[in-house]
Design goal:
With 310 residues, the chain is mostly beta strands. 4% of the residues lie in helices and 47% in strands.
């Protein structure tokens, strides 16, 4: 497929690459990618049905295994603002880009009317079937605060191993004359709530799933706020038999992880777990993640074998 700019109201053709992944663009909605007969990824760019207090933002949902099992949650009743997999920041220059109430030290979570939105302009389907979008992070006051170029792609489809890899990249750039500080609720005073950035919410049936990570770490409580080069979340499906494993591999230095299992299934390699992440005026922040989405409950040994093959 040749590179093409497409407005969100336009449709483009479907292509098939060497991994037998087809990429199609829906009219007014977003992008779907199929691996063989299964739609493994759907990107939503302009979901105006989302209430404003939940932070209208692009996100990926559903994500599926090669056998068709859905591995993302969408607007769960406990956190309506959790939507599949996305980039989200609880506090940036006075705006909540996470959705829902904002944490205030001494008061807890409060509706402050400070929720912003992330608006999508044009997106591109590139020659290698990477989908790239130009986004604007617009503050609660209506002023654009950040520009983002976000891209994602389906890679390394392996039917024999029952897995494929989501490649996700984001580059954020401040737009104003002032620095922008990303802050989590832990930075603002809440213990063990350091979520900020790339966030996955799993389906409800994955609650209580097993968590494994590098450095020999295991369990959500053991991982909370700790650094590790990778983290795997293993959950069991409702309705259909079987398990799925999501293996999160961030680029660069090992991050501090925010992870939940008993309350709900959620994973975030945090940008600002304990300390603010400050971007100077005009500064860029580039991050990248690979998420291996596999059928079955992978053991630590199976994960190690996979990682050694990268």
């Amino acid at each position: 497929m040749t590179a093409s700019d497409a407005a969100l109201t336009a449709a483009t053709a479907v292509s098939v690459n060497d991994d037998q992944v087809s990429v199609g663009v829906s009219v007014g909605a977003g992008v779907e990618a199929q691996a063989g007969p299964v739609e493994v990824l759907r990107a939503r760019f302009a979901d105006q049905a989302v209430p404003a207090r939940e932070c209208r933002t692009p996100y990926l949902h559903p994500l599926r295994t090669l056998s068709g099992g859905v591995v993302t949650g969408h607007r769960p009743h406990d956190h309506r603002w959790h939507k599949g997999l996305t980039m989200a920041v609880p506090h940036a220059a006075g705006t909540n880009f996470w959705g829902g109430p904002s944490y205030v030290d001494g008061l807890g979570y409060v509706d402050l009317g400070d929720v912003g939105r992330v608006a999508a302009g044009a997106f591109q389907v590139l020659v290698d079937d990477t989908i790239a979008a130009e986004l604007a992070w617009i503050g609660a006051d209506g002023v654009p605060l950040l520009a983002e170029r976000r891209s994602f792609a389906v890679r390394d489809v392996n039917p024999a191993a029952g897995c494929w890899t989501l490649e996700f990249r984001s580059e954020l750039r401040t737009l104003g004359a002032d620095p922008v500080a990303f802050k989590s609720p832990t930075v603002l005073g809440r213990d063990q709530a350091g979520y900020c950035g790339f966030f996955w919410r799993g389906p409800r049936s994955f609650t209580g799933g097993r968590v494994l990570a590098g450095n020999g770490l295991e369990g959500a409580e053991a991982l909370m706020g700790e650094r590790a080069p990778w983290l795997a979340y293993i959950g069991e499906f409702d309705e259909r038999d079987g398990f799925a494993t999501l293996l999160f591999i961030p680029d660069g230095a090992p991050p501090e992880w925010f992870v939940r299992s008993d309350d709900y299934p959620g994973v975030n390699p945090s940008l600002a777990f304990r300390r603010p992440r400050v971007l100077a005026a005009g500064e860029r922040l580039a991050v990248g993640y690979r998420v291996v989405i596999a059928d079955g409950a992978w053991s630590r040994e199976r994960i190690g074998e996979f990682l050694r093959g990268l």
